[in-house]
GntR family transcriptional regulator
Amino acid sequence: MTDVKMFQKPDRRRAEPLWHQAEMALRALIENGEWASGSQIPNEDKLCDLLGISRITVRHALRNLEEAGLLRREHGRGTFVRSATVVAGVRGLTSFTEEMASLGLTVGTQLLDAEVVPASEDVADALDLSLGDPVVRLRRLRLGNSEPIGIQTAHLPQSRFAELAQDAREMQSLYDLLRARYGVIPVKAKEVYRVGAVSEIDADLIRLPAGTPAFVVERIAYDAKGPFEFTVSTMRADRYEIRSTLYI
């Protein structure tokens, strides 16, 4: 079990609530690597002693860090530091780069493939094209804090993005490139989430055995002219979560 070497203890004289101070102190241990990815953190009793605060306050801080995707609780075992995790929920239309940045993760992208191919039936239906129309296919490995999060395969009409296969080799964010180079302003997107499995082709890249359960996310993005992007993402289920708040 990882122990605490040094951190900022909550100070009752400060204006910030004790739970917030505790949360920031524990977050710092995770973000600076004092608590390594996958390590078990001290139990609640130990944290109460180390921080000098009540169990209720400790639980408040731990719950916030769990909801932020930094910790995971395992019944009967304890609490552990998560690997880089994307927590998806109700949000606006964002790129992967923006989503990662909002979670405090360092985004990374490895372009695996960029070429023009004929549209399959699924791609043609999604983009309102004819079967076989040329589309730009971009296949990318997406990283968070240098750890693989998923593999995304995007298809875009070549008729609208003639030089995209070449432009993509220099890009970090596809949406930033589309906005700057082609004047695309996304207005909405439709997403479908389903359970799938890691393919043999993706296994080594995503660092999981073939057949491992994964999230498969299909997105069709639109601008004022209609659908411009159809992307299928295979996301590591241990590093990508979907959370919702339901109201009655």
